[in-house]
Amino acid sequence: MNAIRAVGRLWLVPVTLVAWEIATRVAEQPFFPPPSATLVRMGEMWLSGPPSRLLLTEQAMSDFGPSLARLFAGWALAAVIGVAAGVAIGCSTRLSDYLDPLIHLGRAVPPPLLVPFFLALLKLGTPAQLATIVFGIIWPILVNTIDGARTVDRQHLETARIFGFSTVQRLTRVIVPAAMPKIFAGLRLALSLALILLIVAEIFAGSGGLGYRLLSAQRTYLYADMWGCLVVLGLLGYLLNSAFLLLERRVLAWHRNARQTT
Amino acid sequence: MLEITDLVHSYGSHRVLDGVSIRAAEGELVCVVGPSGCGKSTLLRSVAGLIRPTGGRVLIDGRPVERIPDNLAVVFQDYSRSLYPWMTAANNVALPLRRRGLDRRRRREAAMAALDQVGLADAAEKYPWEMSGGMQQRVSIARALAYRPSLLLMDEPFGSVDAQTREDLEDLVLRVCAHHGMTTLLITHDIDESVYVGDRVIVLTRSPTRVAADLPVDLGRSRDQIATRQLGAFVRLRAEVGRLVRGGSPTPTVLEKH
Amino acid sequence: MEHARVLRGVAGVAGFLAAAEIVGATGLIDDRFLPRMSAILRGAAELLADQEFLADARATLAAWGLGLLLTVAVAVPAGLALGALPPVERAVRPLIEFLRPIPSVAVVPLAILLFSDNLHLRVAVVVYAASWPIVINTIYALRDVDPLAKETLRSFGFGPMSVLLRVALPSAAPFIATGIRVAAGTAIILVISAELLAGGAEGVGIYIMEAASGNRMDLMLGATLWAGLFGVLSNSALVAVERRLFRWHDARAGVAR
Ligand SMILES: Nc1ncnc2c1ncn2[C@@H]1O[C@H](COP(=O)(O)OP(=O)(O)O)[C@@H](O)[C@H]1O
Ligand SMILES: [Mg+2]
């Protein structure tokens, strides 16, 4: 039953793949290798290692390891700074009045523009890439957190005052949970933006990581490798987004249900 | 216990309260009834210390209200917003008890006892959105009870539940307030309810608001939804309150009893 | 009230500029890498008279504007078609769900192979990346149209096409507009990324790289400042247009921003 439904839902995927395979074989265009060739290259590049390492090759380690580490480090750093600052700003109308124009300006700067700047400031390598990611993705987190903290239900805050919650309790038990749906929306946007900036930073400045592999494959005419990188990046984006949605669904169960019933 | 003297409050140039004086003795359940928009919530918020009134004085146990007093609890009208939807009923009730210096286990016990009192012992692990409106309002009442305030303020607590639930909740409040001996100020726009629940009924005028009348309710403490509402005294009092709320002047016969 | 807010905003900006200048003046940071605030502002002012920068800015804006126009022309009809034809939407959704999370800049190397003209390359990348928010918002908006409104019209004997034109489209329009605003932000990121990664002769990204290799941090940050100001202005303009066009729309929350 489930299988039938899955076929009903997913049939276009295999159809597209087969059509793509046929079209590329007929056209014999070097830029567009057949999907089967791409798949084979992906296996050779990343999944032909020893079983003790889950088949992952040296190259897989050096492509994915640093990229994922930078991605998560940058995202986590931006999340901590963005949420903390956002709660502080959102709780104080005065502070947000002062900072509003600066925040608008900051979030409007296209983050890739800063890649050359951070490279010059911090030298090639991880610090510059981290700085690019953090600076680029902090804005959706910050703006969403401010919005969430600012629009906490008045009655929720008054209840906290009536029952004499301490400042810490007010923050951790009332304001942050109430702002959580908005914070999560910001974090999710930030995650996909982080992947984009990671690739820009790696291509532009890196010496390792998936973005670097992608560009060097293109420059050395290894088009199946390039497509393999594209596919893997798509998979990575998909997995990150799905994992995050799963987390969001768990953490925000109350939010979805509360909205359904009222 | 509670002394409100000449309370005045204006929002900008809009004068809402124009010298309201109300007194409540220890353990008394005083109902405040008035037309919608006359400033009942404003009155309650001044007593709770949530806003600073423009003029007048509020004393609780002889002390002026400057900050939010720590022996006071509030039950708000809107049940859908009075509980934290990200916490279970038990946690909603237990959270304020940290201020009472209880450890985790004792907070939990107190919360369970309070939920038991409002008939929700089985729903402790439910989230607010898993409960009906009446149940949610019971949880807010349990939260107030567990806090053990000496003054309980309720702002139209049954305004948004259905009629049957409303009667149950009225009886619940009568029972627990008597049991704990709490002084209670219950605000309502429902004339029937004010007479049924109150030891005294304070009637407010339209804004700019003053006290139109202060009527004792001689119906005894034990009340019954059907029998009490049929008593001649109840019917007369309800008619009197109704007249006053609509802007009529006090009838001498009722006032004589005072 | 409003007056006080504006004053505070101005004070905040002034305070930030002053603080940055003071930190620069203490010499804690080598001003070859992070120039003083006054130098950045001077650099920004110089840029306005710099023909080369102006040409680069025009090139970037052209790619952005053209890309966005083309995106709207492609993505709105695509979204409408998918939103109006649920079976098609259901069939295509797995493809969308796989393509959308591909970080859009990853297609730049592919685009480099396919387009020799830099403008075409940038426009193509923009269309690919900026279509998603519009398509998705349009699908969701059409799905959210009040069924009662549709049935009302149908009960008066209108056909499906006029229902789409008279009810579905107007009530979906605010969400589509929001999608376009999001797409505008995405598009500028993509144009500049493409400039940085694919090189070329013209564009703000190219200008910045040249300034970086010439160690002109002041010009680099000055150009960045202009890019940010342009972003603020274009975004506010789009918000203002949305407000005017959709005054009847009660700013329903919860749309992707
Ligand atoms: N925060 C406020 N700012 C301005 N006016 C208010 C505010 N709160 C209440 N009011 C006004 O004061 C009057 C009394 O409000 P309220 O105390 O809520 O009345 P009630 O609870 O009796 O319905 C109303 O006219 C209302 O519009
Ligand atoms: Mg009220």
Architecture overview:
The complex is a heterotrimer of chains A (262), B (258) and C (257). Chain A is mainly α. Chain A has a single domain (35-46, 60-261), classed as MetI-like fold. In chain A, 83% of the residues lie in helices and 0% in strands. Chain A has helices spanning 2-10, 12-27, 35-46, 58-91, 93-108, 114-122, 126-150, 154-162, 167-205, 210-219, 223-251, 253-261. By secondary structure, chain B is of the alpha/beta class. Chain B has a six-stranded mixed β-sheet, with helices on both faces. In chain B, strands 2-1-4-5 form a four-stranded antiparallel β-sheet, with helices on one face. The model of chain B has no long low-confidence stretch (mean pLDDT 89). Residues 251-257 of chain C have low confidence and may be disordered. The longest helix of chain C is centred in the C-terminal third of the chain and has 39 residues, at 160-198. Chain C is an all-alpha fold. The chains are: A mainly alpha (262), B alpha/beta (258), C mainly alpha (257). At the A-C interface, helix 2, helix 5, helix 6, helix 9 and helix 10 of A face helix 1, helix 4, helix 5, helix 8 and helix 9 of C. Magnesium ion (MG) binds at residues 40-41, 155-156 of chain B.
